[in-house]
Design a protein that fits this description.
Layout lengths: L5 E2 L6 E2 L7 E3 L6 E3 L10 H7 L1 H71 L1
Antiparallel strand pairs: 1-2, 3-4
Bound molecules: zinc ion.
The site of zinc ion has 8 residues, from loops.
Length: 124
């Protein structure tokens, strides 16, 4: 337990600060004391939470196989969506770049004859 104590201003008795309290009665003279802020023991919700999980984990472990069996179609569906998502993510830009490249090639191939013809016409 915390060895930190503060002296009662009325009787000088050492008082142990109460957990979660800002004020308390002196254990020696009963004077109304304000617990110094640095000695205040705050109620930390994390402490309660850390004690709770083990039971919850046990429950999850018991149902894990059943949950997995129930979740398997959902998981495979999610996996398919993920796979299609990644496929689309990789294939779509590739297709787009391919289309752009093809268009550029077509434009180049289409432009060159025009240039050759225009050159040929202007040279005549
Ligand atoms: Zn006192």
């Amino acid at each position: 337990m915390s060895s930190q104590s503060f002296k009662c201003p009325a009787c000088g008795g050492p008082n142990q600060p109460e957990t979660g309290a800002t004020r308390m009665a002196c254990t020696y003279c009963g004077a109304n004391l304000t617990i110094p802020e640095r000695l205040r023991i705050k109620i930390i919700p994390k402490a309660e939470k850390t004690s709770a999980p083990p039971q919850k984990i046990d429950v999850i472990e018991v149902d894990a196989s059943q949950v997995l069996r129930k979740a398997q179609p959902i998981l495979t569906g999610a996996w398919n969506v993920y796979a299609y998502g990644t496929l689309a993510r990789w294939v779509l830009p590739a297709c787009l770049t391919l289309v752009v490249v093809i268009l550029l090639i077509c434009a180049a191939l289409g432009l060159f004859p025009i240039l050759w013809i225009s050159n040929w016409i202007s040279n005549r």
